[in-house]
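Structural prep section.
Before we set up the soaks we want a predicted structure of the protein with beta-D-fructofuranose in place, mainly to decide which crystallisation condition to try first. Input record follows.
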Amino acid sequence: MKRNILKGIAFAAAVAAVFPTATAQTSPSGVKVEHLGVNNTLVRLEGDARYLLMPVQESNDDAKINVLVDGKLDKTIYVKLAKSKVDYQVPLDLEKYKGHKVVLNVVTSQDRSSVREASNDACWNNFSLSDTFDTANREKYRPVFHHTPLYGWMNDPNGMFYKDGVWHLYYQTNPYGSKWQNMTWGHSSSKDLVNWEHHPLAIEPDGLGTIFSGSSVLDTRNTAGFGPDAVVSLYTSAAESQIQSMAHSKDGGMTFEKYPGNPVITLGSEARDPNMFWHEATGQWVLLLAHALEHEMLVYTSPDLKDWTLRSSFGKGLGAQDGVWECPDLFELAVDGSDKKKWVLLCNLNPGGPFGGSATQYFVGDFDGKTFTPDLDAEGKVPTKWMDFGKDHYATVSFSDAPQGRRTVLGWMSNWQYAAEVPTQQYRSANTLPRDLGLFTAPDGQIYLASAPSPEVDSMRGQLMKKSGKASLSSKPRNFQLPAANDGICEISFDLAARNGSTVTMTLANTKGEKVVMTYDSKANILSFDRTESGLVDFSQDFPAVTVAPVLDPKEKLSVRMFVDRSSIEVFGNGGELVMTNLVFPNEPYSTLSVSSNGKADITDLRIWSLAPAK
Ligand code: FRU
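Run finished without errors. Recording the tokens verbatim:
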């Protein structure tokens, strides 16, 4: 007997030498790790837990993970599995796999000399199964009244619409890390545009690709045949190529069904971010598609949201032409609140913004249902116009079907130059405050876009901390205390009357000497924003910057409204005729506002509100 066993062992050893078997590893409970080779590992899951928590190391390369359910490929995701240390964990939701066998086939990209070396990676012992995933905020800089994802990366707002009293926001997200990857539509909704509720992922990658930006419409005429209550979305399926796909929702945007006939638009070149609307005058759907590398927007029409015909293109050689053109939008607005109307075409581009990196330009003109014709300036040229003169305003598009004919927009409050480097980790990026758009005529005869904070924003006002009448300014700064509650989040508003071309300096500062310096030059009619000493700035060489906005329609007073939300400052001048959105990362909240002038100037109607955090 004994001899036979020994013989058996000897035989097994001999087989192993010729045909090495997989190396199993002692693993966390319910997770069985088997190394198949230097780059390939199987992770078998047991039990019925809700989540697999996957260990991430931000600086590592992506591992490619095929999620196999009962042996069939359900999805492929890319995760920066930890090599030498675990920065945080991200959840793989196992809810829909309950009762099935789940195996992850993991391909790591690192070159390892041996399986033994590969098996030392920190990730293998740090997977865990759990019924909960802790999303309690760990971030000092997470804004309070701006939308942020609960965890993970976010870029563009997508597919926004308003229905039955609720604003729906979808967004580009990576559910498996805080850098761009695995593009999926995340989903949040709000009744007041400032308090947001988080919902499960809305549209996930499939065989056609990951889910890039797009738009949604309410198909109340039932043109697509999904029913008059259907929400219909078009997005870009991005893989080897970029093609346009459709999905619809019958439960008000909570869950989506993809169209079996996808894709609905294909082209022989890079094109993305379909944005659709119903064109009343011609009774058809219109869609704009960013022909990214050609620097033009393609205009399509359709009777049913499925069959699209290319009608025209706009933009070649016009406006800012650097980088790529992305995320279009097209809508009509009243001019100066009158009966006169004009069309506005939004064109996000990256890089090539006025202060480097990404920014939103726009064109004002006419649209006949097929062709957009831009207005010309006094010299007969198409002027370049910017929607926001900060560094952190991108991918801005509007909600479909906003109430009372409003044109309400949200942007992504970051810049591709450093979005992945900002000093946050659990989440990356917030949206801008919601803004309602209008058009105004400036003294140069041109029509410009005004972006004012949406009226809902007023509802956040808590205690009025400071209210003062008229005070004259001098070179000796007047100092005003900012609220200490909620890390100093606040709204500040005041009017500046600067005479004889004087300059007014407004400084937000903390006790560490970190500051943001804003300067209103009433002679040059510009407002500048200097964040070079605002706090943490050296995580990217592109972050320290001075942004400058023109006061396009100077008045006797410059009225200023400013919103501070931990890591962002949005400055609105003259009811949105001037806007600057900039991120800041002070080591402690700014605690004072100091205002001074080199000449004759007054500050009037100063108000400082502490803002109530989201309920
Ligand atoms: C703009 C953009 C879009 C694209 C998406 C991908 O920021 O590049 O053009 O659809 O991001 O996440």
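Observations: The longest strand covers residues 461-473.
Flagged for discussion at group meeting.
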